[in-house]
Amino acid sequence: MTTSLKALTNLRWLPAALMACLAACGGGDDAGNSSPGSSAGLKVYRHSMDESPTSLDPVQASNVYANHVLINAYDTLFSYQYLARPYVLKPNLADGWPEISTDTLTYTIRLKRGVRYIDDPCFPDGKGREVTAADVVYSLKRHFDPATRPQGAWLWQGRIVGLDAWKEAGSNYDQEVEGLRALDDHTLQIKLVQPYPQLLDTLAQGYSSVVPREAVEHYGREFGIRPVGSGPFRLVSYDTARIVMDRNPGFRQEPVDLAAEGYDPATQGQYGLERIEGRSPPFIDRLEFQFIADASARWNSFTKGDEAQYTTIPNEQIDRVLTSKHPITLKPEYAEKYFFYAGMEAGFIFQTWNLLDPEFGYNEDPERERRNKALRCAVIKSFDWPARNDSFYGGIGTIFPGIIVPVVPEFDPDLSRVSVTRDVAGARKLLEDNGWNAANLPMFTFGTTANVLNRLMFEQFRAWLKDIGYPPEKVVLKQYATFGDISKAWKQAELPWVVKGWGLDYPDAENTLQLFYGPNSSPGSNDSNWRNPEYDALYEQSSVMLPSPERTEIYRRMNEMVIDACLTATGLARTRIHLWHKDVIALPDREIVGGFFLKYVDVED
Amino acid sequence: MEVLQYSLRRLVAGIPLLLGVTFISFLLMVYFGPDQTYQLLGKNPTAEQIAEIRAELGYDQPFLVRYADYLREVATLDFGNSNSTGELVTDLLARTIPVSLMLILPGFLLGNLLALLLALLAAHYRSRWPDKGIMAFSVVGMSISYLIVIIAFQVIFSSSSGLGWFPVRGWNVHSLAEYLEYVTVPTLATVFVALGYNTRFYRSVIVEELNRDHVRTARAFGVPPAKLLYRNVLKNCLIPIITRVVFTIPLIVISGALLVETYFGIPGVGKVTFDAITTGDQPVLKAVVGLTAVLFVLAQLVVDVLYRAVDPRVSLS
Amino acid sequence: MSVAATRRQSLWSKAAWKLRRDRFGMLGLAVVLAHFVAAVGVWLGLWATGWGDVAGGKWDSVSSEHWFGTNLIGQDIFQRSIYSISTAFEIGLIVAVLSTLLGAVLGAMAGFFSGRATDEFVVWLMGVLDSIPFYLLVAAIAFALEGNPWSMHVAMISTFWITTARLVRGEVIKLKGLEFVEAAHAIGVPEYTIIFRHILPNTFHILLVQSTITFVAAIKSEVILSFLGLGVKDGMSWGLMISESTFEVLAGFFNNFLAASVLMFGLVMAFSIFSDALQDALDPRQVS
User: In A, residues 133-152, which contact B (CB 8 Å cutoff)?
Assistant: First the structure.
């Protein structure tokens, strides 16, 4: 015993143990079966993103990161055209457009035949079976089963006949739902409670990925890391730093028709996209996602040459990479190596008063309400959008009034810009006229998550408020450790001022107008807790209308009501400059669902 | 037999420690930790859905029930599935701990061995210029923040604006060559930072040993320096050194190298644990903390047994 | 005058003499004092009052108006880095004083009652806190205290007292056996009076050195904790400046990084050198 311990103490065993571990662990690290890297003759595309998905279960596809992976592992009934801007829907797993009854309440959707899931041990003989309409029904029902911890139910809540009652009755999958039925293996029927013009858009979300029941039951909670789908790629390995997917060899043959994908040679001709015309995706053997939170590390990895092949330009690099911002042009040394595409965010950044706040919010006393409203308006007037744009969004974001964002067709470019123009004198006068001074202004708590950029945003905001006479010591920062913690504060209406970004789920202004709809008040997405009967009536009226000039008219009236109410400092749509290596044939984008271009990526040999 | 009996006794004596660690960390990380409910909500939730999620996560259970559940989980080493991804926690750890080990071990070994060499050198030339030089270097090393070193090394060695010799980040290891590529820069940063601390520590231990009477006597009797160093000094220094090394191991295994992993994007256990804290992924947290406690009890045992092996005067009773 | 008091006095006067002769040590002390003066000026509102104002453009370079340039939103980096000196002293002093006090009291009690329940409890507590990885513990405390501005201090104190307590415990066990303690026992001096009046003063050299080490450790930990989003909540600090700089350095903008890291390096190094000199001067076993 003693001798062997002596041998241990002279530490010679350590290097040997290290090598042993290397041999053993090194093999274990590779979850895949094929050899890595492009050296082995594989076509690899390496995509980089700033965050990793938390779960790959479609019911939890709440963010763009998860969607990037999900819609490439699974099929959705509908999808967005690869190249059309603004975004246009197209059938995907659906075999053509649905039949819609004249009252627009019943949708009959046919599925493509012969589409198969990948081979996986969850199937009885390990062979992937055909995707059926029953799978679609099952996949949507999962959002109404609390045990799956679903996040997408809001898309269909109160919309589909019998679905909410199905949940009330205990979410038993063997029970039929009247409004969501598979008529046969390849026909799905959806019955709506009232017209829902955005229904087909919801069926293009990562949330609506079509999953096989066998996989959910076989993997249990681990289903979140083992997608079993029928999409163009199959998952090979998944950790918080990297996801590797290989092409799904059994993916259906669907030659690309560029015209049908919305190809515009005038603006998109330089990317070499013609080379995928008539060929069936996927074109690459391996799709790799690298999750790099730190922007400078992401940039280093991208410019290195043999690592990430795609990045967005980090805000702090914009001045170094561009020669001009309007229009956006790259410096020659970058233009030589990389393609770029400047895409406007489908969404916006805005800051909203919470009217339930006792100090700043709506007050029953009309006199106090008059003063509070003046204070709310004054703070909004102090907001310096161009400075915010310059500091945090590279000076290339688009500032616009109201809540109808520029990427949707209902956007009105001629709207008055007074609400996004800084007016220090006006703000000071408003405060003065309504009896506000340094002594009686209330304490202003600014809540953010603990991160250094948010902190600088706070300091900038505090400096603006100082300009209108708000003492800096009365503007205090409250930091929340996690996004979950600050969401909780929002949902419980604890903060007077909510700073938020909203990404569109589908390209329809309804998606942002609902942010001020009374019944969506906290804990819903209406953080302002504004309840205006006229606005709510207009929302209800427009929400069942198909796109039309009348609907646009209503949308715009609602937009003006929000602006006039001094509710929110809005808004800015960020522009992301996507850069990719010239040997990659693609038009990258991350808006709307996110990542649907990945199916079409090709890499030059 | 004696050793075995002793080990068992020590293990039993470790139970209070285990209970303490699990209780404190349960209280801090689980009971008062971040509430994951609001992270798992959809965009437009209702109050009812919020209650459903809380029930799903078990937040509505009383404190004691949750703590008892936790102890059962530690005892059976079955921590269930991660709340975020749904991956089995044991799988998650089995995947990430080897990565952290491979990442840290080279730096750990080099940092200690080099420091030992420098310390011997410094002790040998005590109060003369090599000693002063080495000590000045170690103070400088200790005064630079680890974070600054990591940022600077990444720019210098990996970025295209620096030397660009190594991958900027990541961990794509399938062969020895790839391993060396990815591990070098993190190792350099770790060694650079650890060297200052370790050298000082080892030097003070060695100097203290050199001042002991038996060493002075041996020197006076003309025992050759190399023999003196090996037989009288190094062997007696082993106790503090072993203590330091062994107690660092549980920390490496479990908490990994959080900063290095975060900055270099390496999927080790440090990053996973930190993410679990910030998102409130309790099954992962519970496992990490429970395992650290278990490893500490084991480390204590190992140290005690090693003491005995090194220094027969220490009795096992 | 008691034997112990005489012994103490000679130790201190000898140490002071030795310290004054240590040129590096005194240089270190001078640098620390210079930083301290800067901190006092901030507390008195003499300078760096405009650290929060937006006074320039984005990333202005060095000029007579902005000595270290400006940051992303146009704040003066010089004023921010000077203001951060006061933050560093606040953190360092609070953490060093409180954790030394806590370590002294618990360590002395454990040492004096060694082998008894009090000792067992303290040793157990030290073992428990040692077994939770530092950053995990700090993160956990920070989250448990939900945005409380003192969470970082609490977290540091709850781990930093342990080393001091270990050293004091060992020293007290040694002192306990000395004649003057046994004499005090014999004439019926109450136990707590013995601990706090007779034994603890004899560990002051350890406490002094330990508090300087803790001071440095606190400043350095702040940087990393602030980077992780667990650090300073209110005001400005070097850690926050360095985290600002993590996304600036690769864009070729180094002012934040340099201002914060050079000032911090200066203070930490000077303090470490001073701390070493102090240790040398106070160590009775030291052979030169």
Answer: 146-147, 149-152
> Which residues of B fall within a CB distance of 8 Å from C249?
151, 155
Query: What is chain B's pLDDT, residue by residue, as a tens digit (317 residues)?
Result: 677 787 788 778 778 888 888 888 788 877 777 777 887 777 778 888 888 888 888 888 888 888 888 888 888 888 888 887 788 898 888 888 888 888 888 988 898 889 989 988 888 888 788 888 898 888 888 888 888 888 888 878 877 677 878 887 778 787 888 898 889 999 998 898 888 888 888 888 888 777 777 777 877 777 777 777 766 677 777 777 777 777 777 766 665 577 888 778 788 888 888 788 777 788 888 888 788 778 877 887 787 777 777 665 555 44
- Whether B35 contacts chain C with CB within 8 A: no
Residue with tokens 């060899």: A249
Q: What is the pLDDT along chain C (288 residues), one digit of tens a residue?
A: 456 667 667 777 888 888 888 888 899 999 999 999 999 999 999 998 888 888 888 888 899 889 899 998 899 999 999 999 999 999 999 999 999 999 999 999 999 998 889 999 999 999 888 877 777 787 788 777 776 788 889 989 998 999 999 999 988 988 888 888 888 888 888 888 888 888 888 888 889 889 998 999 999 889 888 887 788 877 899 999 988 887 787 677 889 989 998 999 999 999 888 888 888 888 655 433
**By the CB < 8 Å criterion, does C139 face chain B?**
yes
Question: Residue C172: exposed, middle, or buried by beta-carbon count in 10 A (0-12, 13-18, 19+)?
Answer: buried
A90 phi and psi, to 5 degrees? -145, 155
Which domains occur in chain A, in start order?
347-573 (3.10.105.10)
Of A251, A204, A161, nearest in space to A70 by CA? A204
Would you call C131 and B21 a contact, using CB atoms and an 8 Å cutoff? Answer: yes
Which residues have a Cβ under 8 Å from the Cβ of C51 and sit 6 or more positions away?
C75, C76, C79, C80, C82, C83, C236
Q: Tell me, letter by letter, the H, E, C secondary structure of chain B.
A: CHHHHHHHHHHHHCHHHHHHHHHHHHHHHHHCCCCHHHHCCCCCCCHHHHHHHHHHHCCCCCHHHHHHHHHHHHHHCCCCECCCCCCEHHHHHHHHHHHHHHHHHHHHHHHHHHHHHHHHHHHHCCCCHHHHHHHHHHHHHHHCCHHHHHHHHHHHHHCCCCCCCCCCCCCCCCCHHHHHHHHHHHHHHHHHHHHHHHHHHHHHHHHHHHCCHHHHHHHHCCCCHHHHHHHHHHHHHHHHHHHHHHHHHHHHHHHCCHHHHHHHCCCCHHHHHHHHHHHCCHHHHHHHHHHHHHHHHHHHHHHHHHHHHHCCCCCCC
**Locate tokens 């092949």: which residue?**
A309
Q: How far apart are CA B160 and CA B167, in angstroms?
A: 10
- What Cα–Cα distance (Å) separates residue A122 from each residue in A126, A149, A185, C31? 6, 22, 20, 69
- Residue A602 has phi, psi (to 5 degrees) of -130, 155
C154 part of contact set with chain B, CB < 8 Å: no
Q: With helix as H, strand as E and coil as C, how does A129-140 read?
A: CECCHHHHHHHH
The position carrying tokens 């309840």 is A531
Contact (CB<8Å) A9/B306: yes
Q: Does the model's ipTM exceed the 0.90 cut? A: no
C249 with A479: Cβ contact below 8 A:
no
Beta strands A322-325 and A602-603, pairing class: unpaired
| Cβ-defined contact of B272 to A240 (cutoff 8 Å) | yes
> Strands across the sheet with A338-344, in order?
A310-312, A575-581, A338-344
Distance between B292 CA and the closest CA of chain C, angstroms:
7
* Residue B99: closest C-alpha in chain A: A25
Name the 3-class secondary structure at A195.
Answer: coil
